[in-house]
Amino acid sequence: MGWQRMAARVFAALMVTHNGRLTAGELAEMLSVSPAAISGAVRYLEPLGLITRERVPGERRDSYRVVDDMWYASFLKQDRLLKLWVDTASEGIDVLGASTPAGQRLAEMRDFFAFFAEEMPLLFERWHARRIKAQHAEGVD
């Protein structure tokens, strides 16, 4: 994915904790880094939809936790990005012409991203069906 190193460390720390939740102070202590480093990593991870900030009732500090079903959510964002690439390539083809070498390259790009944009929802459905089946088999809801 090409993540920032500190973001990867914060994400890994949250993934391996028992409840998937830590405060910024706990993360800083665990990783032996400054709170500013944690803040930067969190600003990177939150928009990706992999972690979320929340305040536990009665607590004064925010904590960070991994998002439930994070892989599905992050790939949904990718789906929107794929559609953006399709639209952008299509606009480029309209401007440059489909028969030009650049237009042909853009058409290949458009077709590639359109294929994945079309197939990803089907993969998501299969993933959810498999996950639900596995959870029921394990007695987890």
Describe what this molecule looks like in 3D.
The structure is a single chain. The protein has two domains: 5-66, Arc Repressor Mutant, subunit A (Orthogonal Bundle), CATH 1.10.10.10; 70-138, Orthogonal Bundle (Helix Hairpins). Helices cover 68% and strands 9% of the residues. The protein is built from five helices and three strands; from the N terminus they run H-E-H-H-E-E-H-H. The chain has a three-stranded antiparallel beta sheet with strand order 1-3-2. Helix 1 packs across helix 3, helix 2 (24-31) packs across helix 3 and helix 4 (70-96) packs antiparallel against helix 5 (101-138). The chain is flat.
In angstroms, what separates the terminal alpha carbons? 30 Å
Q: How would you describe the shape? A: flat
CATH-level-2 architecture of the largest domain: Orthogonal Bundle
- CATH top level of the largest domain? Mainly Alpha
Quick one: biggest sheet? 3 strands, antiparallel
* Percent range of helical residues: 55-70%
Q: What would you report as the Rg, rounded to the nearest angstrom? A: 20 Å
Strand content: 5-15%
Key phrases:
141 residues, mainly alpha, Arc Repressor Mutant, subunit A, 5 helices, 3 strands, flat
Summarize, please.
A 3-stranded antiparallel beta sheet has the order 1-3-2.
List the SSEs and their pairings.
Layout lengths: L4 H12 L4 E3 H8 L3 H11 L5 E5 L6 E5 L3 H27 L4 H38 L3
Antiparallel strand pairs: 1-3, 2-3
